[in-house]
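[job 0412] stage=complex_fold ligand=manganese (II) ion status=START
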Amino acid sequence: MLAVDKAVAFAREHRAAFLDDLKTLAAIPSVSTTPAHKGDVGRAADWVAAQLKAFGFANVEVAETAGQPLVYGEHLAAGPDAPTILFYDHFDVQPPDPLGEWTTEPFTPTERGGYLYARGASDSKGQLVAHMKAVESFVKTGKLPVNLKYLVEGEEELGSPSLGAYIAKNKARLAGDFCLNGDSGILGAEVPGILYALRGIACFELRVTGPALDLHSGLFGGAVHNPANVLARLLAGLHDEKGRVTVPGFYDDVRPLEKEEREQLARLPQDEAFWKRGSGAPALFGEEGYTHTERATARPTLDVNGLLSGFTGEGVKTVLPAKASAKFSTRLVPDQVPEKIAAGLRAYFEKNAPPSVRWELVAHGGTPASIMVRDSREVRAASAALETVWGKEPLFYRVGGSVPAVGIIQKLLGVETLMLGFALPDDQVHAPNEKQHIETYHRGIETFIRFMALIAKRD
Ligand code: BES
Ligand code: MN
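[job 0412] stage=complex_fold status=DONE, emitting structure tokens
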């Protein structure tokens, strides 16, 4: 029996145990943004490190960073003739809020209707554990056909603020032929896909202040400019009526979509109904001249993420608030530069903010977009592995979200990334009732096994 068949058979025999392992990790509330969960993020790191050690990884460490810890480990027994894969993923998760909307507790992984419900079950613990179980399946039935270096972080959902420093310090140790990034998905339970582009992101906060204190809106309203009114006007002006962003220079560096790529995107199973169903919005909206898929995955955007001002409690209060603020972010495409976007925003507010208020723009930094090659040896191996397991050729698609590690690894280590993970578009990532489709999780394990076997073969 071939090594790959032995590993696949082992994975099929251990489906129950492999699902239990995902439940164990998903039960740890590793919310990276919440200080009270710092210990839990550490516990998730320890769990990953313990698994790696159990599979014979060497130099396993839980490395402290300026923020949350990350895990490194290497398994180099395949020898110098076999490829070396740098595997990246994350064990941190988004906050589970709003808690009241969950059917079952976010950190009590629960099986229901073929899904495992838990915060992080899909983004990205399901993908991380799927790869670890593929590794286990080889190790327990023989040996790994490839060399592996694991780099699993606890700050992806914060924008990976410490990852670059760790990689810069450990360049030689992290060297490999390419990066396999598990924080990815496919197009549907029966529709395999390979994600080849992610948007970048730049996050901001605009703070508008006016009067020295909250005022009686009857006594001062009309004579004093209301910071909430000003904020609303400034934010509204960031788009024109055609849905285009008005920030000076915003589109200057945008790489136009090629005709051939647009044709390919148009063939994806993502029609108007798909985006309507996924969002639950009464109607769709977006930049003129582009399809919904292009708008959400291949065009740059600006969205308000939160607003804060005045009285928002129950009842009425006639206040003219002294301040108002908004958090907003832009999603970027190749070849936009986060710093240039910040400069454009500053110019916009300088031009449009009235002298009756003061304003401050805080730039929280950002990460550029990434676009990957679609015809490498790795991509061909991934396509073949997906096709074997799903019985269908995968489609190439883009996602509008961001995974900063792709750009960081490309820049610091100079290697290409292959995105290969099995999240589904309706997994409700970052939302209440996040779920991982269980059958897809098991198919994902098998795909990872077949991928590692294929990439190990010499051409
Ligand atoms: N896993 C997502 C990105 C993603 C979504 C990839 C769907 C593939 C399919 C990732 O964890 C994420 O949400 N990233 C954040 C990054 C941000 C905090 C810098 C995002 O895009 O908002
Ligand atoms: Mn993720």
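The domain at 202-254+300-365 is CATH 3.30.70.360 (Alpha-Beta Plaits).
[job 0412] exit 0
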